[in-house]
Amino acid sequence: MSLNAELRTFYEARQRQIPAEVRAVMQRAGEELEASGQTGRAVTVGKQAPDFTLPSAVGETVTLKGLLAQGPVVLTFYRGAWCPYCNVALRSLQEHHAAITERGAQLIAISPQIPDESLALTEKHTLAFEVLSDIGSAVAKAYGLAFDLPDDLAAAYDKLGLDLQHVNGGHARTLPLPATYVIGIDGTIQWAFVNSDYTTRAEPTDILAALDALT
Hints:
CATH class: Alpha Beta
Distance between the termini: 27 Å
Shape: globular
Helix content: 40-55%
Strand order of the largest sheet: 5-4-3-8-9
Mean pLDDT: 94
Number of helices: 10
Number of strands: 9
Low-confidence stretches: none
CATH architecture: 3-Layer(aba) Sandwich
CATH superfamily: Glutaredoxin
Largest sheet: 5 strands, mixed
């Protein structure tokens, strides 16, 4: 089963568990985000990937420049460990991690959550790749991916018990669009996936094909 087929199955089951009024708020917010043109403002193929310096889950400092000195980078942005769709996507990437490294690339995940949350996520899912903390979403903004939750959606998340104020280090409203980039060693984006729909993610097989195209 493809990743997005798995996500669609999960979505259909999940909808039955969420109150109708909350589903309506989520749907309206999703439609407004899509209509905003946010995806069109994200950096894309042919552009230089903005450099970054971010802490890892274990407190180490990671830079894109340093990563690219070792080979291509697969960079994926996700919302956080509280997002079940993100967890499904990250587990799928973990399943393809060996295939990514065999192609000489490094897989890096970025979210706005604090390092403690990233560490808990890494340990829970036994992730073998770096999970970095972009508190305040400065890197997501540089990539054109950051957006602010509307008031009604933020309130709906509160009702669901999602403490984004804590996990995002005081920046509860700002999240990144789901996005994945394949970045060549010269820092140029060679392949990109950006979508306003958080239930849709880059297929690992497409990422591997993009890495194969580099050689």
